[in-house]
Design goal:
The protein is an alpha/beta fold. It has helices spanning 11-15, 25-37, 60-72, 89-98, 111-118, 122-138, 161-174, 190-200, 220-229, 257-266, 275-289, 296-300, and strands at residues 6-9, 42-47, 81-85, 102-108, 142-148, 178-183, 209-213, 234-237. The chain is built from twelve helices and eight strands. Strands 1-2-3-4-5-6-7-8 form an eight-stranded parallel β-barrel, surrounded by seven helices. The chain is globular, with a radius of gyration of 18 Å. The structure holds 3-hydroxy-3-methylglutaryl-coenzyme A and magnesium ion (MG). 3-hydroxy-3-methylglutaryl-coenzyme A (HMG) is lined by residues 14, 17, 47-50, 53-54, 85, 87-88, 90-91, 106, 117-119, 146, 148, 182, 184, 212, 245, 247.
Length: 313
């Protein structure tokens, strides 16, 4: 569709991985069900990472199994694409055992963040992806790639554009079907984003590029618009604006799904998502994680035709 963007929902993975309250599988599956009922077609439901490193993601196999059971029962649409994060071969083997048909690998653009997040250098992380890609091919599993700290690192500061471009090329050569460009700690500005994507699309087709913006400094919507204007049509967002990486100090949530949907719908650009249903899901998630969600639209709701605003959380 010409006037449309694709939303990749991060709430159940990036959204929950940094939360103090760990949600049980039943609650996470109910969130998945309601997200798909709101029109979400691509969602990351968890991560096969070490539970010692990220205890919040324990139970991912159960989430995948229960989500597929709901698909079988006709509760979740058949075409829903579930994905999980995998850092290495062990994670990939767990992903295969779970029956999931898509995984995401992730590499950093700064050595210090790579070490803190996955305990190895960038080079080593790419070596770990080789068996992951071989297994993916054998089992016909789609692989998405993330590049983190593309605009700045919590330990090293600025990250050079040239390094990001080189790593994007390297990741693309591995055979990932899409690369998500991450502003892990929300430091980018719209000018930088425009320049970065203009350069990136010379080495990776723009259709295969996604934007993953954390909203730490309130720049995420502007950054999304900047990326959209240079042709990017896929954006990672998180219900309620939850998110952050436990190994990226200072990083707050991903841009809120509701805020992004509100912006695009207002511009006449389709997302396929039902904004009211997303807003309605906010209070339940806030109650479960025991704090209000950062999303702006999630708080005040959708403007009704008569100018009434729906109830607050
Ligand atoms: P390590 O401790 O160096 O691993 O962790 P190891 O290979 O030395 O193994 C130690 C133990 O971990 C062994 O078990 C392994 O079997 C086990 P033991 O013999 O001691 O019983 N192990 C695993 N267990 C479960 N799942 C696995 C796995 N691999 C080894 N996959 C490791 C290395 C990569 C596992 C660890 O550092 C890790 O799990 N890191 C994940 C950190 C993470 O999830 N960060 C957040 C996601 S990234 C992000 O948020 C950014 C993103 O959103 C984009 C953006 O915002 O820019 C994607
Ligand atoms: Mg992230």
């Amino acid at each position: 569709m010409k006037n449309a963007v694709t939303i990749v929902e991060m709430g159940l993975r990036d959204g929950l991985q940094n939360e103090k309250t760990v949600l049980d599988a039943e609650t996470r599956v109910e969130i998945a069900r309601r997200l798909t009922n709101a029109g979400v077609k691509r969602l990351e439901v968890g991560a096969f990472v070490s539970p010692k490193w990220v205890p919040q993601m324990a139970g991912t196999a159960e989430i995948v199994a229960q989500s597929f059971a709901l698909v079988k029962q006709g509760v979740i649409p058949k075409k829903t694409e579930f994905s999980v994060l995998v850092p290495n071969e062990k994670g990939m083997l767990d992903a295969i055992a779970s029956g999931v048909k898509e995984v995401a690998i992730f590499a950093a653009c700064s050595e210090s963040f790579s070490l803190k997040n996955i305990n190895c250098s960038i080079d080593e992380s790419f070596k770990r992806f080789e068996p992951v890609m071989a297994l993916a091919k054998k089992h016909k599993i789609k692989v998405r790639g993330y590049l983190s700290t593309c605009f700045g690192c919590p330990f090293e500061g600025k990250v050079s554009e040239a390094k990001v471009i080189k790593l994007a090329q390297r990741m693309y050569k591995l055979g990932v079907y899409e690369i998500s460009i991450g502003d892990t700690i929300g430091v980018a500005n719209a000018g930088q984003v425009e320049l970065m994507f203009k350069k990136l699309k010379k080495v990776v087709p723009v259709k295969k590029l996604a934007g993953h913006f954390h909203d730490t400094r309130g720049q995420a919507l502007a950054n999304i618009l900047a990326a959209y204007k240079v042709g990017v049509k896929i954006f990672d967002t998180s219900l309620g604006g939850l998110g952050g990486c436990p190994y990226a100090p200072g990083a707050t949530g991903n841009v809120a799904t509701e805020d992004v949907v509100y912006m695009f719908h207002g511009m006449g650009i389709k997302t396929g998502l039902d904004l009211s249903k997303l807003v309605d899901l906010n209070p339940m998630v806030a109650e479960k994680i025991q704090h209000p969600l950062p999303s702006k639209v999630g708080k005040v709701g959708v403007l009704k035709p008569l100018g009434k605003v729906s109830a607050q959380n």
